[in-house]
Please model this.
Amino acid sequence: MKAIKEIGWAIKTLVIGLLVTVKYWFKPGSEITVQYPDERLTPAPRFRGILFNDVERCTGCGICKMTCPIECIEIENYGKGKARRPIHYAINIGQCMFCGLCVESCPEGCLIHTDRYEGSVYDLKDLYYQFVTEEQKKRFMELADKGIPVKEEAK
Amino acid sequence: MERLIVKAFVKLGLGSPPEWAVLLIVGLIAGIILLLFILLYEGLGTYIERKVAGDIQVRYGPNRVGPYGILQFVADGLKLFFKEDIIHSQADRLLFRVAPYIVFTGSFVGLAAIPFSAEWYAGRLNVGVLFILATTSLVVAGLAMAGWAQANKWGLLGGMRSVAQIVSYEVAVGIALLVPVVHIGSLDLQSAVLYQKKGWGILGWNIFHDPFTLIAFFIYFTAAIAECNRTPFDLPEGESELVAGYFTEYTGFRFAFFFMAEYGDMFVVSALATCLFLGGWHIPFIEGLIKLPILHNILGSMVFIAKVMVLILIMMWMRWTFPRLRIDQLMALNWKRLIPAGLLMLLLASLWDLIFDGKGFFELIGIIK
Amino acid sequence: MIRSQEMLINMGPQHPSTHGVLRLILRTDGEFVYDVEPCIGYLHRSLEKIAENLTYPQFIPITDRLDYLAAINCNFVYCHTVERLMGIEVPLRAQYIRVIACELNRIASHLIMFGTMGMDMGAFTPFLYAIRERERINDLLEELTGARLTYNYIRIGGVAHDLPDGWKEKCLEFINYFRPKIKEYNDLLSYNVIFMKRLGGVGVLTKEDAINYGVTGPNLRATGFKWDLRKNMPYSSYDKFDFEVPVGTGEGGKLGDAFDRYMLRIKEMMESTKIIEQALLSLPEGEIMAKVPRVLKVKEGEVYFGAENPRGETGFYIKSNGGTKPERVKIRGASFSNIHALKKVLQGVLIQDLVAIVGSFDIILPESDR
Model:
């Protein structure tokens, strides 16, 4: 008798399980899957994507470099006082862990997270993001030599 | 068929061929047709399996290669074909190479005895059921070989498990199959189908013959799933325990052979169930209306394959629903539940035949005659 | 029992069911496992030493890497330890947001446990169902914190961001969506006869053993011992919420078996939804950050604080010498203690039981190896 009861219980639970899956079997498509290269989700506004620095507004204060726990930011400044400007600003995105501490601490608000999340490259060197271009570097050096502060120039 | 071959020989100016040559050619042609059929089925089978899995698991499944991803299996096959064939240095090279072929042969040869329709079959054997049981047991030898030859401890465990499992479940399969055989009175599959060809509907099928045969069908189906190493009885290849079980070290096309063997096995056991329990190629409801033999053959084989596919789909459905049994539970289920129940059903079904003179339940109450 | 030649099997670090890089050296006889030796340390990143070289806030993103399935909980434990050391009082709203985020993350973590448990048992489908729900939690947390795995959300003195607009409604909607799913999980897996028979009565951990090995969290509660730090030593306004602490019932066979450990997580998910609902509905207005100086200088002293994480008590011991960097940080990973109880439990079991028991302990290696 006990055995028959057990077999009944077994069949009952198995059938309940089968009914759960068959419910989804005949529901075509998927509720949650995104066909990635064809359709893309837009990340949330707060999403911490690949970093971007608007070097035109950057004063080269170096707080981001100080806050970074893994030291993946490099800054080289030129000029003194208020006219100081970064002539080399690089982030090693390969090292970056997207914690967002640098962005939170940036007093100028020029270092931001974009919503880009695809960072694959063919060469490891390409992950070393340089934000100051050669012409910018030249221009920044001139501006710093003239002693024009960052904020005024931006106007 | 034979006459056509003799004619062709005469036309080619070779004279009348000896009997053995004709038989050989007929066998070859039948073999090639069956091989092509089973390869196509296996390709589509993997596609269907993945699609079913996708649907059940609220994903898409393959949908990139070809329309609805239907050519996925071609891509997979090509990929496996071009993969490096690795035989590592510790492996027993001969057994390692032979094992996949034995497994595949074991799953494929059984098709020879299966009647696809009234006239389409490779061979009509008067011991068809026995033949299929014997050939599917050949798989065990291959699996054990593969498990042993690859000199991998997980593989060895998988091989041992598969031997223990398949050998024990074959007993249950055999006993469950005896129940319809008792009604039919023959081991020939074609006459099994003809026996069930009574009445116009589905009530003549063996599964509706009497309650004991119905239970025997479920016993057979459970044991058959275990014989094909499918979930919930996929212990030999249980990927979360044994990495990949008996084919852990196999790569490329040798791996594909194991895969095809699994699908081939599924087809054979389902086909056997269809022949013995579900009326084989018997077309329900419109059987009597079809007069043209060729049309009857085509429809019959389609019905047959549809019945087999339904069983295979149920296997897939179960695979993507249930967890796996433990090895001791697996053995207990076989020896303590299925085999005693099977023996009881055999006894009761034999008594039924004795008392009611071989008439089925619906024949007795007069719905069919 | 007849014993034949023993076979030494190396299970892991690369094995489908060892949950990361746990290595188990098994001494087996056929299917029977006589002895197990867990080997840990494959994921050692010397986080404790790294902490000594970083300032207090800089270490927060590193704590994400402790228990990556419950990153917010780890953030929280660390931040709260520093707060206790500094004597900072966190605003009530921040406390509530912390509770909501932690409990959401607890559900996400238990979902992974549920899914991998099914996968270890050979059922693949529950995993994808679990992932489906976890995806929604990830979306919610992405909106809240800005990341999907390493959240880095909790700050010393509060939280990084306030709740976004409309997030509260979305979260309540998720709770209502999620509750019926638990029944579906029970139908599909928990009360499946095969699953119950596989887990019931195997891997029994007694209350005494669990306490002796320092097992905490759901694994301890599954032995019938009601010990939940959220109730017993309330922190971060957990005492304001009404929830139950489920304990093992032995419905699978024996008290403290693998099924109890599994079932406890399912019940805890339900309790977590209760906490989230209460916290969301009674969310006070106010600040989300306490007044904290920009450069944190922690006064001399030492403190230990442990909190109830999804896997047990995760604790931080921080010793400060008055500077901006801690002098010593000791992390108590819950999984570290839980792994060591495995050796006791995994004796004379079958290989398949072993997989099930390791799965039911729900260990995570980065936390134990640190």
Observations:
- The longest strand of chain C covers residues 301-309.
- The CA atoms of residues 7 and 30 of chain C lie 8 Å apart.
- Chain C has a mean pLDDT of 86.
- The first helix of chain C runs from residue 47 to 52.
